[in-house]
Amino acid sequence: MHRYRSHTCGALRESNIGETIRLSGWVHRVRDHGGVLFIDLRDHYGLTQCVVDPDSPAFALAEKLRSEFVVKMDGKVRRRPEGTDNDDLPTGKIEIYVSEIEVLGPAGDLPLPVFGDQEYPEDIRLKYRFLDLRREKLHQNIMTRVEIIKSMRRRMEGQGFFEFNTPILTASSPEGARDFLVPSRIHPGKFYALPQAPQQYKQLLMMSGFDRYFQIAPCFRDEDPRADRLPGEFYQLDVEMSFVTQEDVFAAMEPVITGVFEEFAKGKPVSKNWRRIPFAEALRKYGSDKPDLRNPIEMQDVSEHFRGSGFKVFARMLEDPKNQVWAIPAPGGGSRAFCDRMNSWAQGEGQPGLGYIMWREGGEGAGPLANNIGPERTAAIRAQIGTKEGDAAFFVAGDPDKFWKFSGLARNKVGEELNLTDKERFELAWIVDFPMYEYNEDDKKVDFSHNPFSMPQGGLEALKSQDPLTIKAFQYDITCNGYEIASGGIRNHVPEAMVKAFEIAGYGEQEVVDRFGGMYRAFQYGAPPHGGMAAGVDRIVMLLCGTTNLREISLFPMNQQAMDLLMGAPSEATAKQLRELHVRVNLPQK
Q1: Residue 141 and residue 134: Cα distance in Å, rounded?
Q2: Which of 81, 134, 176, 291 has the fewest other C-beta atoms within 10 Å?
Q3: Are 179 and 494 in contact (CB under 8 A)?
Q4: What distance in Å separates the CA atoms of residue 221 and residue 230, rounded to the nearest whole number?
Q5: What is the DSSP string of 174-210?
Q6: Does residue 37 contact residue 62 with C-beta atoms inside 8 Å?
Q7: Are 472 and 435 in contact (CB under 8 A)?
Q8: 180-222: per-residue pLDDT in tens?
Q9: Cα–Cα distance between 32 and 35 in angstroms, integer?
Q10: Phi and psi torsions of 293, nearest 5°
Q11: How many CB atoms lie within 10 A of CB 81?
């Protein structure tokens, strides 16, 4: 027999009854039933009930076992007594009568419980992550992640893509976040950067004639913590294709992402015909460039009904042509209590309040706004937005560029509060026609709004003749249930257009050559039209595991302060290490 096990803890069935076997694993739980010890033994594959009675030569040692001891047990498989089957376990019809126990690894007092999935302080969970990962739910999430990545690889290969690995030590690139820099010992005073994404390398692969690339790529960004991204590093399904239009990318990737969601959705419906929503429409209707389409609420511009009205606050705002009033319908929300609650919520978000109209029995409008604008205008608003008796609508006014995010939060809040958002499905969509540029208020200059390597719609001619802030890009996102899960674009592969695009954002031609020399040179020697995207593996796994915390689907994450509590990173370098790297630490004064 094998030194440690003849079977795993999830393998034994009724067909094994009568066999002498050997198991190794962790003591999950010990129960004393009138002097007979029941030990649940657990490994990666499952859990088996083991029984030790006072007649067993192993009984004296069994009495000393505690949770998370690693042990080897020899014994005989037998049928569980009638009425004691556990239908929740694959091994639930059998048990092991133990004849011998060997302790392979004793365990001290546990800093956090492994049995059960109760909440526990995050700093303890991360410091003792190896224990945390033994917990059933987290263990399952990690294995689901493994299966999802396998599914992605299988589906990408089925679409004719080839997996390539790109360098981790590379050059700094303006991807929109800070780089992690790595000092070079061999080249004093110079630094490598960890890749924010394999963007340039995957485009260079297209220059090299490989046609269809993918990679489960690690990406590194020195960003402040965000709720929907782990600090430090994350993984993406990175994709690039040659000789393609935007439609070709959509046709290749939609089946891959839909298929992954259908495979792991646990029966929840997954949208098959993805909607395509222009960026401007997404902001206008949903107040978000990653809208939760499970929420049926669509906002509408109702400015005309308030222009010159008796509600002077809105009427005066609308004298400025850039200002608008948007309505957020609230089906079933026509109670004073709900409207007051939403108003208080808005004030908690730093707003002066949230105007509303309620529609009473007979269709009559009620509330301060209705009283100020009169029954005709109130009825016209109702006719436009389609509200009924018992409904309400909330109103946001001002410059849409400044209030669209708040309006989106309000839409989400109404959907949640009124149970309008269907939590039992996955709603996928493309967001298209992103603006190529935006105005950077901090630096008072035009800047790239998204990916600097995207092809502008209209090409070089648009860059030469259009107001930069009106140029749209061949750029797109995939959204799901309020999260951006992928981003991509058709690339700007024309050298003159690339230089012009960066020039508009304040980069001179020499700077383009210096910073993107490899790609710029490659474009001079026969560059195919190409495009692609990158899907966030972590967010997809998070959605499919039904959690909102990325730490619940990652093996060894950092905390919100970007610290690895398990390994003690970041840590101070030794004086010798700093000398070798020709680096001196200049700490800020306290």
Answers
A1: 11
A2: 81
A3: no
A4: 10
A5: -SSSPPPEEE-SSSTT-EEE--S-SHHHHHHHHHTT-
A6: yes
A7: yes
A8: 999 999 999 999 999 999 999 999 999 999 999 999 999 999 9
A9: 6
A10: -80, 0
A11: 9
Rg (C-alpha) for the chain, rounded Å, is 30
Instruction: Say which DSSP state 491 is in.
Output: B
Q: For residue 248, report the phi and psi dihedrals to the nearest 5 degrees.
A: -65, -40
| Calpha distance 115→431 (Å, rounded) | 43
User: Using CA atoms, how far apart are residues 181 and 183, in angstroms rounded to an integer?
Assistant: 6
* 176/480 Cα distance (integer angstroms): 23
- Residue 433, token pair as written in the block: 């026609």
Look-up: residue for tokens 């840590």? 571
HSE-CB at 76 with a 13 A cutoff on CA atoms is 5
d(CA 191, CA 181): 6
Q: Ramachandran region of residue 208, left (φ > 0), alpha (ψ -120 to 50) or beta?
A: alpha
Q: pTM higher than 0.90 for the full model?
A: yes
Find all residues with CB under 8 Å of 26, minimum gap 6, and list them.
41, 42, 43, 68, 69, 70, 114, 134
Pairing of strands 300-301, 355-359: unpaired
The one-letter amino acid code at 180 reads F
**Which tokens hold the place of 495?**
């050298």
Both tokens assigned to 299: 């906002």
Residues 104 and 100: their CA atoms lie apart, in Å, by 13
554 closest CA partner among 138, 268, 49: 138
Mean local confidence (pLDDT), 332-354: 94
